[in-house]
Design brief:
single chain; Aldehyde Dehydrogenase, Chain A, domain 1; Aldehyde Dehydrogenase, Chain A, domain 2; 2 domains; six-stranded mixed β-sheet; 15 helices; 39% helix; binds nicotinamide-adenine-dinucleotide; Ald_DH/histidinol_DH; Aldehyde_DH_Superfamily; oxidoreductase
């Protein structure tokens, strides 16, 4: 743990083990914080806020830019640690480190662009002006599936705005968080500006974050169920919250699209991070007239995806994070098959030689999926592509929007009018049009409905950490 500029070591606190999901080996340990450490971290952040909030954006930018440089200098070591701790293939881990570093770079610049405005008054003797100030101490909770970039995506805009932070990472990936905080330390952030607390049981920390009077804002990325729980705990204290929650992305392939091109793109994004991504397409709608060539190409590509330890450079499908994830995926697949889905690839967990304690599931392709199946309603978070055949645009829009989630959606069409029309009709926050990677530090990321509140990235991302102040003066 990193509190007030010090690494907490040699204490009487106990530790919890961190394991490699590819083989079950213990790769390290992290400290179990108690209430006292959370309190110390919040107090350190509160104290540091007094001076950090008064620094200039140019000073804050320097620390962020240095952290960006350090991340890039250490990118290979960070990627390797991520593969060992979280399981994704090394190349994907490296891409994530670079994506995360980009938030530090982008907010190093954006810190300088928090402009105010003047507003004309109806009274000739009055002037209005508006400016922005940091909200205060921020409590941040991050997930395991993107264990480095989710930290950068929260810390960068918060400290750019002039806030100070106490962060709790996921219990499966504290080592990536520790590596990131070593970078923040080396980058020269003053003591107390960023603080890290770790624990294997997150609930007591969440309760303190939501109720502590010094915490002004909670930013959370994780499941919708936990997000709702934390929002409920924060509500009596009227704390500001940002919530990046679960998804159930539809992907629509219209009859005028190239089915081979669409199958290539969607098979890439579906199996990214072994399907453990909030923007992973969970329901792939394909027009009946091109379903056969689409499925043939998709199936061929799934067949060519080696499963294994992400440290092996030829591996495309790493392990799932734990046994519970395997069980959830397998339940959805069995439920779909029992209700009439056709299994084209995979469909089972697999034990690999040398990785007997790993959590592997074969990349799976199901067609003829229907609304009665669990996979049509629930986030899968695993390597299963579920294909649904449709006939008309109206029908597919109704099906695509038939979910309480609203994070990402994708569509493939060569008809510009249709692209615009469908973009407007889809009730999702992020829409890829003939594109599978609609995310960047420069663009606002976030969901509608039960996928969350607020945005990360872009100018919207820094405003999550700013208050608006109005001045009205008689002249
Ligand atoms: P999770 O909700 O179980 O855990 C997320 C974080 O919350 C972890 O740090 C965990 O320790 C903590 N947590 C769990 N229970 C808590 C409690 N009672 N009080 C305080 N903290 C608590 O989710 P997960 O399994 O780690 O992550 C997967 C989920 O995250 C998926 O639903 C995925 O879609 C979502 N996600 C969303 C985004 C996004 O940007 N919208 C990005 C990545 C992941």
């Amino acid at each position: 743990m990193y509190i007030n500029g010090n690494w907490i070591e040699n204490t009487a606190l106990s530790h919890f083990a961190v394991t490699n999901p590819a083989n079950g080996e213990v790769i390290g340990e992290a400290l179990e914080c108690q209430e006292a450490e959370v309190e110390q971290a919040i107090q350190a952040a509160q104290q540091a806020f007094k001076t950090w909030s008064k620094t200039t954006a140019y000073q804050r930018s320097k620390c962020l830019y240095r952290a960006y440089e350090l991340m890039l200098e250490q990118k290979d070591a960070l990627a390797e640690l991520m593969t060992l701790e979280q399981g994704k293939p090394l190349k994907a881990a490296l891409n994530e480190v670079i994506y995360g570093a980009d938030f530090l770079l982008w907010y190093a610049e954006e810190a300088k662009r928090v402009y105010g405005e003047t507003i004309p008054s109806a009274r000739s003797d009055q002037r209005f002006w508006v400016n922005h100030k940091p909200v205060g101490v921020v409590a941040a909770i991050t997930p395991w599936n993107y264990p480095i970039s989710m930290i950068a995506r929260k810390i960068a805009p918060a400290v750019a705005a002039g806030c100070t932070v106490v962060l709790k990472p996921a219990e499966s990936t504290p080592l990536c968080a520790i590596a990131m905080f070593k970078i923040f330390e080396q980058a020269g952030f003053p003591a107390g500006v960023v603080n890290l607390v770790t624990a294997s049981n997150p609930a007591p920390i969440g309760t303190i974050f939501c109720a502590h009077p010094a915490v002004r804002k909670l930013t959370f990325t994780g499941s919708t169920a936990v997000g709702k729980h934390l929002a409920t705990l924060a509500a009596p204290h009227l704390k500001r919250v940002s919530m990046e929650l679960g998804g159930h992305a539809p992907a629509i392939v219209f009859e005028d699209a190239d089915p081979v091109h669409a199958a290539k793109g969607l098979s890439l994004v579906k199996f990214l991070n072994t399907g453990q991504a909030c923007i992973s397409p969970n329901r792939i709608f394909v027009h009946r007239s091109i379903a056969d060539p689409f499925l043939a190409e998709f199936s061929k590509r799934v067949d060519a995806m080696p499963v294994g330890d992400g440290m092996n450079p030829s591996v495309r499908i790493g392990p799932l994070i734990n046994q519970a994830a395997i069980d959830k995926v397998d339940t959805q697949v069995k439920d779909a098959i029992s209700k009439g889905a056709t299994l084209l690839n995979g469909g089972e967990a697999v034990i690999l030689e040398g990785c007997e304690k790993g959590h592997f599931y074969r990349p799976t392709l199901l067609s003829n999926v229907t609304p009665e199946m669990k996979i049509y309603r629930e986030e899968t978070f695993g390597p299963v592509a579920a294909v649904i055949i449709f006939d008309t645009e109206d029908e597919v829009l109704e099906m695509a929007n038939d979910t309480h989630y609203g994070l990402a959606a994708y569509l493939y069409t060569n008809n510009l009018s249709r692209a615009m029309r469908v973009f407007e009709a889809l009730e999702f926050g992020i829409i890829g049009i003939n594109d599978i990677n609609p995310t960047s530090a420069a663009a606002p990321f976030g969901g509608m409905q039960e996928s969350g509140l607020g945005r990360e990235g872009a100018k919207e991302g820094i405003f999550e950490y700013l208050e608006t102040k109005l001045g009205g003066v008689a002249i």
